[in-house]
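Structure (tokenized):
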């Protein structure tokens, strides 16, 4: 049987490990792994309306049966492989895809929401399952509680990356400047146990359509190997990004998430810069006017604000 180090030694050189170990911030995908450029393609001349709320607000999953969302994604990864300090491989990979969700069932007594998740469009060859999304033509039921904790994800095992919460929501009502923490453990496809620790900061509230509210959330964190595994592999995986969450439903309106990753097994070093932007495109009434479609550059830093600001 191959040891973890055997796996890393073989896969680091051909980069197949990329989606076996990738930190995969689904905080934007299934609701959410997770990335826009600094300029935004809207053509709207006015700016978003900032809301000054007098008391903390509870942000949680909610909705009625039949509610649906359509979210467009773009994900790019820039990879460099070094051996003995020399660059031996460099590549840029891209995938554009669309995920549609429909709220199938609401159990209001226990606060559970069952969504049918389906990828309906895809352009590119990157493995969406390895990123925490349904593959093209694939669908499964995703059951979330009010705080976006995953209770069931199709037939996937509880220790899989599909059980990473699609978005990190606070346990209590929050106001501008409040922070909260999320920590989640899972096992990668290679059998490597991983941990993600994510800090969220509420940056502000904005008007979303008439009488509705969106929350701007800044995220940062790290992914690392669970200390229970003894390995010489060194991993650095830093997460940064910004989300726009619909307060009334907890659904994602826009998100920009970037990863800065480095893997080193003592012989080969792999550096990866990746970005994923997601844009809600349907229903039209919930769209963010200041961003029409996703487009990101993994070599750029995460934006300092939401589109239009």
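Design, position by position:
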């Amino acid at each position: 049987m191959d040891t973890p180090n055997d796996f890393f030694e073989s896969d680091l050189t051909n980069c197949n490990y990329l989606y076996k170990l990738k930190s995969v911030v689904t905080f934007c995908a299934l609701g959410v792994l997770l990335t826009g450029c600094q300029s935004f393609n809207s053509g709207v001349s006015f700016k978003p309306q900032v809301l000054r709320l007098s008391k903390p607000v509870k942000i949680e999953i909610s909705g009625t049966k039949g509610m649906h969302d359509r979210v467009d994604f773009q994900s790019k990864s820039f990879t460099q492989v070094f051996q003995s300090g020399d660059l031996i491989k460099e590549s840029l990979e891209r995938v554009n895809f669309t995920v549609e969700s429909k709220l199938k069932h609401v159990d209001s007594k226990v606060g559970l929401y069952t969504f049918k998740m389906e990828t309906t469009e895809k352009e590119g060859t990157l493995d969406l399952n390895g990123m925490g999304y349904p593959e093209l033509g694939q669908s499964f039921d995703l059951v979330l509680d009010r705080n976006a904790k995953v209770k069931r994800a199709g037939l996937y095992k509880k220790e899989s990356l599909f059980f990473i919460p699609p978005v990190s929501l606070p346990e209590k009502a929050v106001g501008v400047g409040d922070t909260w923490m999320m920590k989640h453990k899972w096992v990668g496809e290679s059998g490597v146990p991983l941990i993600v620790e994510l800090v969220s900061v509420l940056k502000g509230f904005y008007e979303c359509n008439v009488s509705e509210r969106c929350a701007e959330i800044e995220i940062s964190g790290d992914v690392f190997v669970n200390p229970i595994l003894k390995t010489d592999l060194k991993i650095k995986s830093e997460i940064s990004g910004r989300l726009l969450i619909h307060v009334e439903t907890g659904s994602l309106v826009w998100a920009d998430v970037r990863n800065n990753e480095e893997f080193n097994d003592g012989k080969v070093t792999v550096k990866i810069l990746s970005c994923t932007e997601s844009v809600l495109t349907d229903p039209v009434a919930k769209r963010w006017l200041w961003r029409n479609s996703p487009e990101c550059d993994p070599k750029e830093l995460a934006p300092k604000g939401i589109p239009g600001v």
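Reviewer-requested clarification: Helices lie at 4-14, 18-21. The first strand starts at residue 50 and ends at 51.
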